[in-house]
Specification:
The protein is 31% helix and 17% strand. The chain contains five helices and five strands.
């Protein structure tokens, strides 16, 4: 902390981490915060079921077939993109996210013009889907940076 102030990275990753706490996922809570070039928060999101669905009829389990949460859950980055207000453009924005984006969220980031992704964890780096995600983001010229100053984030965990 400089001058008793937290850095922009600490602030925005703190918002993403706090947003993750809204998730009902019992295993992986993910939060995201999109910020413009003026350091203004454009949108936030967390992983959850689509709005308006009766969640009691869907599973949060990693199960098989229709009992798999992976068929239903909207990821934090995707929700942050969809939650953008008044059609604000995301071109040139930064995404702070607590887990490296999957390949589907990477595509959405590229399509909306997000230019930098700051992520906290990359626990699925060895899987093919996340390798494809990294490849697409690099080909699109999206700057990738792992957030390392975890002091503030540890406070909200």
């Amino acid at each position: 902390m400089e001058n008793n102030n937290i850095s922009w990275d600490e602030y925005f990753m703190g918002i993403a981490s706090l947003s993750a706490l809204r998730s009902k996922d019992p295993n992986t809570k993910v939060g995201a915060c999109i910020v413009d070039n003026d350091n203004k928060v454009v949108s936030i999101g967390y992983n959850g079921m689509p709005t308006g669905l009766d969640e009691s009829k869907l599973s949060w389990n990693k199960g098989e077939g229709l009992d798999s949460k992976y068929l239903y859950v909207c990821h934090a980055e995707f929700n942050a993109i969809l939650n953008t207000r008044h059609g604000e453009a995301l071109k040139g924005c930064r995404l702070y996210v607590t887990l490296f984006p999957c390949n589907e969220c990477a595509k959405a980031c590229i399509q909306t013009g997000i230019k930098e992704i700051i992520y906290l964890e990359d626990k699925y780096a060895d899987t093919i889907g996340f390798q494809a995600s990294r490849k697409m983001l690099e080909l699109a010229g999206v700057k990738l940076r792992q957030y390392t100053a975890k002091e503030l984030v540890d406070l909200v965990k």
